[in-house]
Amino acid sequence: MTLDEEDGEFVASSVDLPEALAGGSSPEAALAEMQHALVAAVRGRIKDESDLAPPRQVGGDGHRVALPSRLAAKAAVYHAWKSSGMTKAALGRAMDREDMEVRRILDPDHGTKLDQMEAAAQALGGRLVVSFVPA
User: Fold this and answer.
1) Which residues, 6+ apart, have CB-to-CB distance to 14 below 8 Å?
2) Residue 75 C-beta-side C-alpha neighbours within 13 Å
3) Which end of the chain has the least Cβ crowding within 10 Å, N or C?
4) What are the 10-residue block averages of pLDDT along the chain, 135 residues in total?
């Protein structure tokens, strides 16, 4: 996070998603806006079928901004699918699901249930892990 000397606004950016930029009158406000920017960037990358790497560990003066849990799960499954080189049709066959269902699972705007995302992760050779982190 940096302070823009010209207008006195704090600016947050992401190394993993350089298209995500946010600003605010305080560091807290900039980080709150950064969550919105990250959501938009992740959704955009999934919609465009662009590369989406898992987030790196935050070090030094970095701040970790979490995605909403459903989008985080979708992003993890999407990354695994994209890295696998499988087509959506091949993933559907591996899951014994119709193509339309696979498209919904990979759609960041569709309210996919957790069991469907778990089934996709298993078909991709992995498992989806959910954890609790104290505030």
Assistant:
1) 20, 21, 34, 37, 38, 41
2) 21
3) C
4) 76 92 92 95 97 80 87 96 96 96 96 96 95 84
